[in-house]
Amino acid sequence: MTTTPLGFIDFDSLLDDEERMLRDAVADFGTRELAPHIGDWFENATLPAKELAPKLGDLGVLGMHLEGYGCAGTSAVAYGLACMEIEAIDSGLRSFVSVQGSLAMFAIHHWGSEEQKENYLPKMAAGEYIGCFGLTEPDAGSDPANMRTRAVRDGDEWILNGTKMWITNSPIADVAVVWAKTDDRGDGKPGYAGFILDKGDAGFTAPEIHRKLSLRASVTGEIVLDDCRLPDSRRLPGVSSLRGPLTCLNEARYGIIWGALGAARNALETAIEYTSTRQVFDRPLSSFQLTQAKLADMTVELDKSVLLALQIGRLKDAGKLSPHQVSVGKLNSTRVALEITRECRTLLGASGITLEYSPLRHANNLESVLTYEGTAEMHQLIIGKELTGEQAFR
């Protein structure tokens, strides 16, 4: 074997020294601190998030692309590379980092008051506080405008009622950013507001969701609000429309573009190594034409996808990235990664269904990654709208 999958495009030559250094630091952390345990975490459907968060904070990856308040302030490309290395271990781990930094922290950083930023962001960047982001509901996933969670003004306070579903980190979160529908803004349209909830607030509970077949090394739950009363100082003052949560979702989708390819790369590297040592008819499995055809096709798809991710990252760093371009990346990366991990599993045969090898674990996780932060179908429609000028959502 003369090269690695990304070696065909000399990917490292496209990065600067700082980007390579940050990527290598995250990869080394993953090898030392995460990889030896991920099989057990997945099998036992657990994640020692409280123990991992301070280590991730020390590494500097929590909110790493945000400026100030204890955040590292790295480039978008550097953040993407970190997501790739973390998801090369497991999608559940990258989800933890993304929810913390690109959803909960980003919402406060982008839409919060100065007091809110100073109060929450340094502790979240250090991993002292774990955050979650409550937008999705049992009956409002792809259509957040129809959320049923309501926030009613009562003097200087708000009363929140509703339920959020499939919320990463919620059962263990110290801080929850929750979105709710508010009274008419005066133009005949409803308003929307984001609120910061603290663990222990009266009327706020977060039961855990069990028996998952995907993202098992991730803590997932609900957010239940029952006459939860909050002061107006806990409302995010910077936005009163769906622009607030949708902007946050685009941040998280950007990380997925890179992260999913990390899972695909790891699965492909595993398949290459396995087929080179597995003997079939007195020959290495890698010596057969069908095996090489599969490996070649997967390498080409991975390399094309990584180049797309890098271009999207460069556009983001230049301040030129549009939401429909994020959709192109998220749709492509998740579909390609899922196809690669499934194909890699076939090359491992029966061994591929065990936790000794990563491809099927990655594939199970990517079934969720394909769907969350916008389903594949929704991203197709976002791209279609940009191409045709026609709204096909309704």
From TrEMBL:
Pfam family, one: Acyl-CoA_dh_M
EC number: 1.3.8.6
InterPro entries, alphabetized: Acyl-CoA_Oxase/DH_mid-dom, Acyl-CoA_Oxase/DH_mid-dom_sf, AcylCo_DH-like_C, AcylCo_DH/oxidase_C, AcylCoA_DH/ox_N, AcylCoA_DH/ox_N_sf, AcylCoA_DH/oxidase_NM_dom_sf, Glutaryl-CoA_DH_mitochondrial
Domain of life: Bacteria
Catalytic reaction(s) noted: a 2,3-saturated acyl-CoA + A = a 2,3-dehydroacyl-CoA + AH2
Ranges where the Acyl-CoA dehydrogenase/oxidase C-terminal domain occurs: 247-387
Acyl-CoA dehydrogenase/oxidase N-terminal domain sequence ranges: 17-128
A single BP term in Gene Ontology: fatty-acyl-CoA biosynthetic process
Cofactor: FAD
Keyword terms, alphabetized: FAD, Flavoprotein, Oxidoreductase, Transit peptide
Domain spans labelled Acyl-CoA oxidase/dehydrogenase middle: 132-228
GO MF term list: fatty-acyl-CoA binding; flavin adenine dinucleotide binding; glutaryl-CoA dehydrogenase activity
Similarity-based family: Belongs to the acyl-CoA dehydrogenase family.
Protein name: Acyl-CoA dehydrogenases
Lineage of source species: Bacteria, Bacillati, Actinomycetota, Actinomycetes, Mycobacteriales
